[in-house]
Write a structure and sequence with these properties.
By secondary structure, the chain is of the alpha/beta class. It is built from six helices and six strands; from the N terminus they run βαβααβαβαββα. The chain is 42% helix and 12% strand.
Length: 144
């Protein structure tokens, strides 16, 4: 069967849903619970370049059991992005050459993942008052 879905996520899509940067399982739990209580969706993303220095295994542990889409930011490291897709991640963010992006999107078609070539604007949870800041952010993205 030929998969005709586009496994890239163009920059124009980035502004249509909220993104939240998470680095700990506790952050994921907070985002998931609040999104569920507000009956809204969002996508969690790793800190910039985290795929390069924390790795795919770390991200899988952080988002284990997460019901929201989760994207690992691999910076300019196409190899780490490919490893993430092969490991079954929802998606990756990578700034790579056109040839590398083509190869990653082909891999994403096989794995069911997605590839973003530009990091979306995302809320960075503050060290204090994270729940209130997140609630304001998610409510601002609710459809009228």
């Amino acid at each position: 069967m030929i998969d005709k879905h586009d496994h890239s996520m163009p920059a124009a899509v980035h502004g249509t849903r909220p993104y939240v940067t998470v680095a700990r399982a506790a952050d994921v739990a907070l985002v998931t619970a609040l999104a569920l209580s507000l009956r809204t969706g969002c996508t969690v993303v790793s800190p910039p370049g985290a795929g390069c220095f924390m790795g795919v295994g770390w991200w899988r542990a952080v988002v284990a059991g997460c019901t929201l889409p989760a994207l690992l930011d691999c910076g300019q490291a196409a190899g780490f992005a490919a490893a993430g897709l092969r490991a079954g991640l929802d998606g990756v963010i990578v700034q790579a050459s056109p040839a590398q992006l083509h190869a990653l999107r082909s891999l994403a078609r096989v794995t069911g993942g997605h590839v973003l070539d530009v990091r979306p604007v995302a809320l960075d949870l503050p060290p204090s008052g994270a729940e209130a800041a997140l609630a304001r952010y998610l409510r601002a993205h609710l459809s009228p």
